[in-house]
Amino acid sequence: MSIPNEALQKLLQEIESRVISSQQQIGITKAQMTTKQRDMRMLELTSKEIGTLPGDTKVYEGVGRMFVAVPRTAVDKRISTESTELKSEIEGLEKRMNYLEMTFKNSRENLEQILKSGRA
After folding, report:
1. How many Cα atoms are found within 13 Å in the side-chain-facing hemisphere of 89?
2. Which of 37, 43, 97, 104 has a 20 to 30 A CA-CA distance from 89?
3. How far apart are the C-alpha atoms of 99 and 78, rounded to whole Å?
């Protein structure tokens, strides 16, 4: 039993659009992961630098166009909170990346199967 040409063509277009969409989403997700990892590294470096300072050193944070003196414990707490949030976001992006890669792989395999069966 053979699939009509119109239905086959429509199926191919649908699978091809899924492949293209997956590729685009993979690129976007990779860029987001890179950004989050860079932010994480910045937080780690900041935490390391603040950790080397003596306990009585004044610490300032930027607020708009000015700097405000902030207790060192508040800065440590903020860095810790942001690190935790970034870790969870990176984990979510990794899960999304795995899903997108599987979708891409399956779509490509389906496309190849259809093309091979069309030739036979």
Report:
1. 17
2. 104
3. 32
Q: For residues 36 and 87, is the Cβ–Cβ distance under 8 A?
A: no
3-class DSSP assignment, residue 114: helix
Question: pTM of the predicted model, to two decimals?
Answer: 0.76
Please say whether the beta carbons of 110 and 46 come within 8 A: no
Domains and their CATH numbers in the chain = 5-118 (1.10.287.370)
The tokens describing 110, both together, are 């389906």
Which tens digit of pLDDT belongs to each residue from 58-108?
A: 899 988 999 999 988 889 999 999 999 999 999 999 999 999 999 989 888
pLDDT above 90 for 38: yes
Residues β-bridged to residue 70: 59
